Amino acid sequence: MLADMPTVLIIDDNAAVAIALDVLFSLHDIAALRASSPEEGLALLGSEAVDLVIQDMNFTADTTSGEEGVALFREIRKRHPDLPVILLTAWTHLDAAVDLVKAGAADYLSKPWNDERLLATVTNLIELGQANRALSTRLQRERRARRELEQNFDLRGLVWQDPATERVLSLACQVARADVPVLISGPNGTGKERIAEIIQANSQVADGPFVVLNCGALPSELIEAELFGADAGAYTGASKAREGKFEAADGGTLFLDEIGNLPLAGQMKLLRVLETGRFERLGSNRERQVKVRVISATNADLGAMIRAGTFREDLYYRLNVIELRLPPLAARPGDILPLAIGFLPRGKRLHPSAEAALLAHAWPGNVRELKNVMARASLLAHGETIMVADLGLPAAPAAVSETEPDRDAIAQALARAGGVVAQAAAELGLSRQALYRRMERLGIARSA
Q1: CATH match of 330-391 with 1.10.8.60
Q2: 194: Cβ contacts below 8 Å, ≥ 6 apart
């Protein structure tokens, strides 16, 4: 038996049936285990890795009630709630089949079975189970990584759920204690300053000041004075000496937002400070010494600016020892609802339709836009529940009709699927249980 082959457990007291199924599966790279009684089958389930069970409904001679199979199925479901089980028997009452499927059976096939239909059902269920296990493993890994981040680092109350955000956050925490410059890139409004705060909070200078300068919010002629300070008379209106951001950040962190707006003269002086820790105030010849960790951020294409001659390449490489790329909010959809709920005042909640509208929006303004939308909705909502209209978002495309399939649609889907209920249900956009219930209501008998 190959370790990477899916494995089916056949529980049937009829040796001919078990052998026939074993041969069928072996021809299609599916391993089979065989048990002739419920007790033997349960023992194998306790000791072997099994992807799917095919079980008979009757094990005692001259018994057709199916009670033994029902008891076995319930015991399997109790011990292995996520394991798919196919019921296989000549006992084919639709009502009983529907009841068992409602109780969690994956499907219900009759003897003699159709090989193609059985293989299709088994293959679909195994693939679905493997996908679910992979998803469960990934989610467990993500939850473990999140716990480790929350336990080991000061995350400054950051709200997130999306793996893309977690990757940025994990790298930010990893490099926080290294005394190197960090460049945070990403669109406006994505939360670059919050990532910078987290780096500062987990750095070796966490007790020092955290000073912010938005290079895009000042005229170019004033940015140098803001960065390095100025002596009295250094420029028009400078009536007294003033301290710059580098002096204010001495012993801590200086966060330079929109670094692409720094003029070339300021870029040259910034490069010197990064290399030597030394600078002069504007209008002064006295050299000053500081110890500052610099984190910068940009929404610009610095590579294109270097090619255009508007940003120094040597400064870029000095700032970009470590680069953190923060994706737009639309690229981390798992963050949308947790952030939206976090922005709501206590007592307010989102209607499910409002949640759907938030997830459907493109968020060109990113987290900043989401914060503003939730503030507006909180003011306009009548009562505690935020409705779609309160959000003020552009109208979303009309939803696809959710009308249930009629008798003809179900019959045609079953015909195309060769009677395989799982396959017909997938085509109709229903679960197997939902399709069985619909068939029962419409009086549609499943073919033998």
Answers
A1: yes
A2: 156, 158
- pLDDT, one tens digit for every residue, the chain (448 residues): 445 789 999 999 889 999 999 999 999 999 999 999 999 999 999 999 999 999 988 888 777 777 888 889 989 989 998 899 998 876 555 555 567 777 778 777 777 888 988 998 899 899 888 888 887 788 788 888 889 999 999 999 999 999 999 999 999 999 999 989 999 999 999 999 999 999 999 999 999 999 999 988 888 778 888 898 888 766 666 668 888 899 999 999 999 999 999 989 889 989 999 999 898 888 788 889 999 999 999 999 999 999 999 999 999 999 999 999 999 999 999 999 999 999 999 999 999 889 999 999 999 999 999 999 999 999 999 899 999 999 999 864 444 334 577 777 888 777 777 677 777 776 676 767 778 778 877 777 765 3
Both tokens of 243, joined, read 């301290």
Same fold, 7-133 and 153-327: yes
CATH topology of domain 153-327: Rossmann fold (3.40.50)
- Measured CA to CA in angstroms, residue 22 lies from 7, 42, 72, 432 at distances of 11, 18, 21, 26
**What CATH architecture applies to the domain 7-133?**
3-Layer(aba) Sandwich (3.40)
What is the residue extent of each domain of the chain?
7-133, 153-327, 330-391, 407-442
CA atoms within 13 A on the CB side of 297: 24
112 is written with which tokens? Answer: 């003699």
